[in-house]
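Lab notebook, design round three. We kept the backbone fixed and only want residue identities now. Task for the bench partner: fill in a sequence for the structure below.
Input C-alpha cells:
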C-alpha cells in the first residue's frame, strides 16, 4: 500500500532533513556503544586525541595492531591502552 503525502516544498525539505539526521544518528559509525572494546580508526583518534593521519601512521608502522571485518578497520581498546602504557614516561610532565 502506498501513501500519498501532500506537502509544501519547505515541509518536504524539512522531512527529508529530519529523516537524514535520524538515519545518521543510528549508524554504527556514530554509535561507539555498539562495542566499546573495538573502536574505528576515527574513534581511536578521538580517544588518543590525535589526528586520523597519526592513527594511520601508527597502523602503517605496526605500532598499533588492527583487524578487519569486511572493509571496516577496527582497533582493540586494549591495544590502545597498551600503546599508551608503552609511551608513558614516569616522572615527566
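Proposed sequence:
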Amino acid at each position: 500500500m502506498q501513501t500519498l503525502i501532500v506537502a509544501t516544498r519547505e515541509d518536504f525539505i524539512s522531512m527529508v532533513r529530519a529523516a537524514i539526521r535520524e538515519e545518521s544518528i543510528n549508524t554504527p559509525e556514530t554509535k561507539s556503544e555498539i562495542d566499546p572494546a573495538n573502536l574505528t580508526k576515527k574513534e581511536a583518534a578521538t580517544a588518543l586525541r590525535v589526528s586520523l593521519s597519526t592513527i594511520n601512521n601508527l597502523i602503517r608502522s605496526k605500532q598499533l595492531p588492527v583487524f578487519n571485518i569486511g572493509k571496516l578497520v577496527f582497533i582493540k581498546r586494549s591495544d590502545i591502552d597498551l600503546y599508551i602504557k608503552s609511551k608513558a614516561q614516569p616522572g615527566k610532565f
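Keep this in mind before ordering anything: The longest strand covers residues 72-76.
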